Amino acid sequence: MKISHIVLIVLIGAVIATIFATVYESNPYSGFDEAKKSPDEVFQIIGDLDTTMPVNYFPQQDANYFSFYMNDDYGHQGKVIMYTAKPTHFEKRKTIIVTGRFVDSVFVADKLNEKCPSKYQGKREMQEQSKE
Fold this sequence. Notes:
Layout: H1 3-25, E1 29-30, H2 32-37, E2 43-49, E3 56-57, E4 66-72, E5 77-82, E6 95-103, E7 106-115, H3 121-131
C-alpha cells in the first residue's frame, strides 16, 4: 500500500470520528417532561414565554435572580429560574431557549438565548404536522 493511500484512509477516519463526536455531543432541544425525568443531565428547552404568567425580577431585593414561565414546544409549561440579571426587553421576546437542569420542580437555567420566532417557524410547523 502506498503512503498516500494510508494517509487518505487515516484522514477519512478522522473526519468520520469528528462527525460522530459532534453529533453525539450536541445537546438537542428537549421538553420539560423529559428534563424532569433526568435531573442530573443538562437540557436545552425551546419554547415561548408564557405572557399570562408573571416575570419576577426585583433588582432591589436580588439583582441576580429572576423567574418566568414558558411553554415548551411540546405544550408543557414550566417555571424557569435564573441566577442572573433579567435581560433588557425580556418580556418583548417570545421564543427563547434555556439551558439548564431541573432542581426539585423548577428548571434552573444557566444560559438563556432569545431568538426571533421566525427562525424556528419551519421547525415548529414540521413538529405540529408530525403530531397530527
